Amino acid sequence: MNGAEAMVRCLLEEGVTTIFGIPGVAIAPFYEALYQNQDKIRHVLVRQEQAAGHAASGFARISGRPGVCVTSSGPGATNLITALATAYADSIPMVAITGQVASTLLGRDVFQEADMRGATESFVKYSYLVKNVNDIPRIFREAFYIADTGRKGPVLIDIPCDIQKMSLKRDLVYPDEVDIRGYKPNTKGNRQQMEKVIAAINKAEKPLICVGGGVLLGQAQAEVRGFCEKFRIPLVSTMMGIGVMPKKHPLNFGMLGNNGKPYANTAVSNSDLLIIVGARVADRAVPKPDELERKVSIIHIDIDSAEIGKNLGPTLPLVGDAKEIFANLQNADIRVDTSAWLAELEEFKKNTVDHRVFSDRLVNPKYFVRTLSEKMDEDGIYVADVGQNQLWSADNYVMKEGRFLTTGGMGTMGYSIPASIGARFAAPERQIVTVCGDGAFQMSMYELGTIAVCRLMMKIIVVKNRYLGLVREHQEKVYDGHYFGTQLEDYPKYRELAAAYDMSFFEAWNNEELPEALDAFLASDHASLMVVNVDSANNTK
Amino acid sequence: MKGIFSVLVENKDGVLSAVSGLFARRGYNIDSLAVGETDKHDVSSMTIVSTGDERTIDQIEKQLNKKPDIIKVRRLEEAKVVALEMMLIKVSYSTTNRAPLIELCSVMGAKIMHVSPKYMIIELEKDPESLDEFVMLCKPFGILELQRTGTIAMAKK
Lengths: 541, 157
Fold this sequence. Notes:
Strand content of chain B: 35-45%
Largest sheet of chain B: 5 strands, antiparallel
Number of helices of chain A: 23
Number of strands of chain B: 9
Radius of gyration of chain B: 18 Å
Largest sheet of chain A: 6 strands, parallel
Helix content of chain B: 25-40%
CATH class of the largest domain in chain A: Alpha Beta
CATH architecture of the largest domain in chain B: 2-Layer Sandwich
Strand order of the largest sheet of chain A: 2-1-3-4-6-5
Structural class of chain A: alpha/beta
CATH superfamily of the largest domain in chain A: Thiamin diphosphate (ThDP)-binding fold, Pyr/PP domains
Largest interface: A-B, 19 and 20 residues
Oligomer: heterodimer
C-alpha cells in the first residue's frame, strides 16, 4: 500500500463520503487512489480552491462531521487560505489536504512550492507536513480528532508528492486512540465553577442568556433551549447563534449587537446577569465591552478557555462543552422568578420603533427576507453571504427549526454559494436557499459550473442593487456620499448567465410581484437563479 | 507587570516559529526567550519572559496552552524562582583603567575569558537584574559587543 492509498483508507476509516477539491500534479497520486475508490468516496470538482474550503465548511456545518477539501501545491494551496481563515474564525471542523513538492526539493523554491505550514500558521488549529509515509495513519487520526474536538477548527495536512508514492512498511492499522500530550480538551466543566454558576443564577433577578455559534457547533440547541424553558430565562443571540431558538419563541429576544435588534441590546444592558455561551464577544456583537462589564455580572461559558477574559472581563468562567454543561444545569437546583423581567423585556420589544426607512422603489429588502423565510420549509437551510444582504437576512429572517448559515467571524464575501454546495451534499433532500448580493455573487459565480455538472438542486437568490452595498452605505454615512470603487452597474446579464449554466431564471422588480415569483422559484424542480432588484438607496441602519 | 513562563514543548520543527509567531501576531512582548532540550530528547523547554498587564499575561498563558505542540505551560512567580542568564561582553580598556575593570569583574563575580591589548571578553552568569547592573557599570569603559542568552528559570517548589 502506498501513501496515497493509505490516505484514502484513513478517510474511509473516518467515515468520509464526500470531498471537495481540485487536482494538480503534486496531489495526483492521491487522485489516482481516489479513482480506485470512487464508489466509496465522492470527489466534487469545484472551480477554484477557495470554494473547496467553503464547500467543506458548509458540509461540516450541516453534517456535524469535519468537512474535507483537497488541493494541489503552490497556488492551488494558497488559494485555499481564505477558506481556512474563514473556517478558523467561525470554528468550523475541517481537514484540508494539500499536495506539496517532493520532500527532497522542499525549501528550494521549485515550481509551485509554497510553505503552507508557515503561511497558514495563524489560520489553522494545527498543521502537519508529512515527512514519513508511515506516519500517515497517526496524522490522519490526529487531524480529524483535533479538528472535531474542543473548539473546532481547520487542520492542514501538507503532503509531498513523493511521500504519496512511497510504500508503507507495515499493513495499515488505523489507531483507535489518540494521545497528544499537549492537547486534552476539557469538556466536563469544573464542579466548583458549576456550583458558582448555579449560585449566581439563583441570585439573579434579571438573567439573560446570550448564545453564539458555539452552541450550534456543540449541538447543544436542545439543552440550552430546555434550560431556558424550564427556568424561563430569556435569550438573545449573536449572528452565528441564530437558530438556537426559533424567532417566534416567547423567550427569544433576537440578535444583539451593531446590526441586531435594539431591544436585544436593551435587554443586555438591563440584565443583572448575562450568561454568554459559545460566543467570542467580538466587536460587532459587543461594541463596548468595558461598559458592559461595569454594569452587568457576567458568566462566560466556552470550550476555549482563551475566549474567556479575552475581550471581556472579569467574568465567572466555566470551561467546557455546552451540551454537557446545559444538560447538567437543567437538573440543577435553580429557582428564579423571571416573570417581572420577562414582562419588562416584552415592554422593550413592544416599544421599540424601527426608524429605518426603506425605499419604495423596487423590492423592499426587509419584506423580501420575511416573505422568503415564511415560505421556506420548517427545516429549511438559509445560507446568507456577506454584506447588506447578510444583515438584512440576519435581522429579518424568521427562523423556524432550520439552519441559518453565514460567516460571522471572517465575513468572507463569496461564501454562500460554495457553502450551499457543501450543505447540499450533506443534506441532499433538504431545502437550501442561498442569498447573496451582486458583489458576493460575482466572487463565487464560477461555482455555477460545479452546480451544473453535478446537477445540484440549488436555489440562488441575488439581491441586486448594482453596488457593493455595505461599502456604499459606509461611504454615504462616513464620506459624504463619495461613492468610489463600489459601482457594479448592470452586469452580469443574469438571465443569460442562468441560461449558460442550464438554470431556471426568476426575477422580481417590485413587492407586488415578489411573492408569486418566490413561489415559482421555490417550486422549481431545477437549479434556479433569481434576481431580486432592490434600490441601492436602502441601508441596513 | 512581568510574566515568566516555563513552557515544555514537543521537540520538533515549527514549534519555535509557532510560539514566536503567536507573540508577534497578538502584539505580546517577548523580553527574552531561551530554548533548549530537556532530559527527554523529544521535549524542549522554553523560558519566555514577557511584560504586559494582568489580562495580557493571562491571555499569553491561555493562548500558549491552546497549541497542541505545547505540552505544559507554567507561569512562574518572580519571587519564587531561580532565574539565571548568561552574558558575554567585550569591553575596551586602556592602561589607566585596566585595574578598575579587573576589580569590577572580581566584585561582580564575572570571569575574564579573553584578554587582548585593547579589550577583554568577560563572562557573567547571574540573575538578569545583576546582568543589567554589570552592563551599566561597564558602560564608562566602552562596550564593544554584547550578547545575552535570555533568562532561564525554574520554580523553587
